[in-house]
Amino acid sequence: MAGWTEFCVLAPSIAAVFARRHEATGKLCMLGTLRPDGFPRISPMEPRVFEGELWLAGMPHTAKFDDLARDPRFTLHTATVDTHVTEGDAKVWGTVEDVHDEALHARFAEAIFAEIGLDIRGQPFEHCFRAEIVGASAVAVGGGHLDITTWREGHPETVIRKH
């Protein structure tokens, strides 16, 4: 499994598309988790790259974070509204680890306040999940073709071109 910084080295094309689309949508992504009955759940969220890691954190007492606490597998898809995907999109998937580190939580809260003005400083974090990535894919459109780039742990990026 790869943390965010390692993933960016191992799958630079996908990481670049993810970062670009993540920023373009105000950091909005769709998070896929597994419900207690095994069915999938899709939830909007705003993951953050902080101190070189991808973090899934947010409002306490939410079903998506309860899902992750029970089953750490996830998928994260950059938000897309363009059916032609002209700006591309990306997905990453893997597992999360719930990090209970009050000093890290305080630094994260300070960063969120500085970035968007949301003041969660001094509040306890119910969950703060660090993502470990095992696979990813990205789509890029241009020049009359579609490139699908995939990456799996232990393998290089692979591009499939569709005309």
Structural class from helices and strands? alpha+beta
Strand content: 35-45%
The structural domain count equals 1
CATH architecture: Roll
Q: Would you mind describing this structure in some detail?
A:
The protein has 163 residues and is an alpha+beta fold. It has a single domain (4-162), classed as Electron Transport, Fmn-binding Protein, Chain A (Pnp Oxidase, Chain A). The protein has helices spanning 4-10, 12-24, 63-70, 102-116; strands at residues 29-34, 40-45, 48-50, 53-56, 73-78, 89-98, 129-142, 145-152, 158-162. Strands 1, 2, 3, 4, 5, 6, 7, 8 and 9 form a nine-stranded antiparallel beta sheet that branches. Helix 1 packs across helix 2. It is globular and about 50 Å long.
Could you write a compact summary of the structure shown?
This protein has four helices and nine strands; from the N terminus they run ααββββαββαβββ. The protein has 163 residues and is of the alpha+beta class.
List the helices and strands and how they pair.
Elements: H1 4-10, H2 12-24, E1 29-34, E2 40-45, E3 48-50, E4 53-56, H3 63-70, E5 73-78, E6 89-98, H4 102-116, E7 129-142, E8 145-152, E9 158-162
Antiparallel strand pairs: 1-2, 1-5, 3-4, 4-7, 5-6, 6-7, 7-8, 8-9
Task: List the main descriptive attributes of the protein structure presented here.
single chain, 163 residues, alpha+beta, Pnp Oxidase, Chain A, 9-stranded antiparallel sheet, 4 helices, 9 strands, globular, Pyridox_Oxase_N, oxidoreductase, F420H2_bilvrd_red/Heme_oxyg
